[in-house]
Known about the structure:
The chain has helices spanning 2-19, 41-45, 145-148, 151-165, 208-211, 216-224, 289-316, 321-327, 330-351, 393-396; strands at 24-30, 35-39, 64-70, 80-83, 91-95, 101-111, 117-127, 134-140, 171-177, 196-202, 244-253, 365-367, 373-374, 387-388. The chain is of the alpha+beta class and 401 residues long. Among the domains are: 1-128, Immunoglobulin-like; 131-258.
Amino acid sequence: xxxxxxxxxxxxxxxxxxxxxxxxxxxxxxxxxxxxxxxxxxxxxxxxxxxxxxxxxxxxxxxxxxxxxxxxxxxxxxxxxxxxxxxxxxxxxxxxxxxxxxxxxxxxxxxxxxxxxxxxxxxxxxxxxxxxxxxxxxxxxxxxxxxxxxxxxxxxxxxxxxxxxxxxxxxxxxxxxxxxxxxxxxxxxxxxxxxxxxxxxxxxxxxxxxxxxxxxxxxxxxxxxxxxxxxxxxxxxxxxxxxxxxxxxxxxxxxxxxxxxxxxxxxxxxxxxxxxxxxxxxxxxxxxxxxxxxxxxxxxxxxxxxxxxxxxxxxxxxxxxxxxxxxxxxxxxxxxxxxxxxxxxxxxxxxxxxxxxxxxxxxxxxxxxxxxxxxxxxxxxxxxxxxxxxxxxxxxxxxxx
Length: 401
C-alpha cells in the first residue's frame, strides 16, 4: 500500500511538471478516508521567471504563498483544510470527506519576490464506501501537523500503530491539529510543539493493548495525573517523536451504532387536489396592564415621592433670616455689618479711580456711613473736618463695660 501510494504521488508530480501548474489534477477518494495533497513549490516555480537569471545557482528559492478556495466560492469545503507554515515551505491540503460528491479546488501560488501568480485546478471526487467499524484516535505530543502530513511520516506512524493494533489492515482516517481542538499555542522555543490527533480505523477488532484504555485502573491513573504504566509489549514507539499519549487515546466502536435515518424528502410545496388548508390557531391575547404598571406607573410614583421629599427638605426646613439673627451674638452681627459696609465703601472708592485727582479743598465732605456729601464752601471755619463722623445709633445701644 505504501509503495503504491508513493507511485501515485510520483506520477502526479511528474504530470504537473510536464503539463505545468495550470494542468487539471483529478483525485478519487472514498468517504471516511484521509486525503492529503502537498502543494510543492518546485511545481509552480516553472511558471515563474527563473531566479537563476538574477542569482546564478538559486533555482527554487522564491518565497511563495498559496491561496486555495472552492471554485466560485470564497473558501474551501467544510471537510478540507489548508496549512502552510512559512513562504519557504510547501503547503498541504488535507481532510476527511463525510459525504460523496465532487469538489473543484482552485489553487493560486503567489511569488513574493516578483508577485507573479500561477493557477492550478484540483478535482476531488468522493465516492460512497463503507466506513471502517473500529476506529481509534491517538494524540502525538511531539509533532506538528505540517510534519505529519508527508507520506513517509504517515507510513512511520502507521507502522507503529499496526504493531499496537496487531494487524496490517489499518488506514489513517483523519489528522487534526491540536489547536483546532482547543489546544494552547506553545512557546516559540525548541522542544515545544502543538501536538497532533491521528485517527485510524480497521475492520479488525481492537487488540488487548488498546482495550487497556477502557479499564477502570487506566482511567483512575489518568484522573490522578500519575504516569500511566503500560506493559513493555504494548510500547511500539520506534521513533520518540511518534510516541502517543495514552491518557488521550479514545476507542470508537461504530459497529454498534445505529445507522442514521435518511433525510426527509422535500415536497413541491403544493397541496394535493381536494385538500383543505387549515391555518394555525392565533396565539391567545395577552394583558399588558401589569407590564405597564410595573414599567411606567411604579417608577412615576417613586419619582413623585422623591421630588416631594426633596422640595420639603429644601424649602420647608429653612430657618429664616430673623430667626438666624435672633440666635446670633450681637457683637458678631455688628462685626458682620461693619465688614459689609467697609466692602461697599472700598468698591465705591475703586470705581472713582478713573477720575482725575482734585485738590482736597475742592473735594466735597462726605459721611462714611450715610454717604452724604457737603460742599467745602458751605463754611470757612477751619475746624470742620474733611471727613465727618457720625454716631451709629446701633452702636450706642450696645452695653458698655
